[in-house]
Structure prediction request, 364 residues.
Amino acid sequence: MRKLYFIAALIVALAAAPWAFAQRIVLPTHFSNWSGQPGPMWVETEAPSNYVDLWKESGRTPGEFCEYLSGGAKIEVDLQKYRDPSSAYEAYTALIRPEMHPSTLDRTSAVDGDRLFVLLGSSILNVRPTPAISTEDLVALVNAVSAHSDQTPLPPIRTYLPRGFIDGTQKYALGPAGFRNAITSLKQDEFASLVSEAGFNSGAEAIFAHYRAGKDEAVLLLLEYPTPQLAEQHLRHLEQAISPAAKQAGTTVERKGSLLSLILKPSSVSYGDSLRSALNYETHVTWHEPTQTITDPPWLTIVGKIFISTGLFMVVAVVLGVAFGGVRVLAKIFFPGKVFDRPEQMDVLQLGLSSKRINSRDFY
Prediction:
């Protein structure tokens, strides 16, 4: 009986799986004159090991696939899904190549003669072959998918790169797999040992880019940390990890706030310095303690208050003096010798210049 219940539950689960997937479908069944039936696309497990490690690091999940038809034309579209937009950006930069160019879709995208990659939130849209579909239809497809995409901004570190890098060489890394993939893609294998000192377990992010201007060229590596203290700590580690030969070739590392910049083997020191000075990065120090604004009043107000206070003090002194003197005089008039200056309490000092004794009563 238990086996029957188990089999029944398994059948129900399998029957419900397509319905559950349909609730999460993003690719449209129709756009412009194109139509198709989207289905699940599972993560490949037989891909090269560097991509498998990268997908694990970026949290790739099952995506979607669809063949669209329009008349006699056919295109294949797949939608790769990742943990968040930063993870998708890491995978996107690993997919694009220098021979690809930005598209005219006004989005983060790269295209060559056969394939188009478009970054849409936490997903990557892949369309091929691109000659089979018009730009207007591509815009319709991208807009339909973008309506369901995560609108979280992409990592700010990508905006720190100076202008002028070779398209397709920008490589973002959230962890060791992305870092190694970037090193291999840019043919900088001698710096592979830096991955252990980069500090990804401390929340570091990295981005590479290859620059060329005439005869000058260099690879720029940026590493951003949560705090300046962590950046300073890993600066020391990276300085020790860079080989003497690389240092001799002009490789340098410097810190600005929470950002480390490494110029890898520039063609000249001056070109490396020009790249570093062109970074779009500024530090801001904020103070979170409550503040008060103290303003001094005008000097005329201060002088006026001094005169008023002095006048009031003088009036109080006169009033108290008159009151004290008046009470004493009245007491002597109505109670002579009883309240003030009583004879038995009076002492008269005599110099003894005469033999006549002075009586204190003679003075009152």
Observations:
- The radius of gyration is 43 Å.
- Residues 172 and 207 are 4 Å apart (CA to CA).
- The longest helix spans residues 299-334.
- Residues 1-23 have pLDDT under 50 and may be disordered.
